[in-house]
Write a structure and sequence with these properties.
By secondary structure, this protein is mainly β. The strands form two sheets. It has a four-stranded antiparallel beta sheet, with no helix packed on it. Strands 3-6-5 form a three-stranded antiparallel beta sheet, with no helix packed on it. A hairpin with a 6-residue loop joins strand 5 and strand 6. The chain binds 2-acetamido-2-deoxy-beta-D-glucopyranose (3 copies). One 2-acetamido-2-deoxy-beta-D-glucopyranose binds next to loops. It comes from Drosophila pseudoobscura pseudoobscura.
């Protein structure tokens, strides 16, 4: 039992580190899909990708309040990039999402931003 609990915590910890899908905020049924983009990078030998995704894209303006952000790891195994929300997000009109891939692994993540 104790072992099982430790295992669960370990798995949870791994999920936090390598958990490649994430979401912030809550999507309401009448929200608009403000942005959907797929970031794909090929693996770099002995190095990792650190990609910043800015919303709205440089040179564009967003008039909507963000309600939710979803990041999906398209690898669907544990080798995808770890997403983090670096600034903005729900309640703001901008967001910067960071994708950090694992060493020697590329990334393929989809970022969806909803708002109203
Ligand atoms: C966005 O949120 C602000 C502060 O909550 C609110 O004043 C504003 O009306 C909202 N804008 C839209 C387009 O809903
Ligand atoms: C990235 O993932 C999407 C969704 O699974 C897939 O359709 C696409 O082919 C992938 N892109 C690459 C370059 O692997
Ligand atoms: C995870 O999936 C991706 C895409 O299918 C693949 O390129 C990669 O080698 C896989 N990683 C592992 C550790 O199996």
């Amino acid at each position: 039992m104790k072992f099982l609990l430790s295992l669960t915590i370990l798995v949870a910890a791994i999920f936090v580190v390598y958990g490649s899908s994430a979401s912030w905020g809550r999507r309401n049924s009448n929200d608009y899909l403000l942005s959907r983009q797929v970031e794909v990078r090929s693996p770099i030998k002995n190095n990792y990708w650190n990609v910043n995704v800015d919303f709205p894209r440089a040179g564009t303006v967003n008039y909507y309040n963000i309600s939710a952000i979803f990041v999906y790891d398209n690898f669907k195994n544990t080798s995808g990039a770890a997403p983090a929300l670096w600034s903005g997000g729900p309640g703001f009109r901008f967001a910067q999402i960071n994708l950090r891939s694992q060493v020697n692994r590329g990334l393929n993540s989809t970022i969806e931003i909803y708002g109203r």
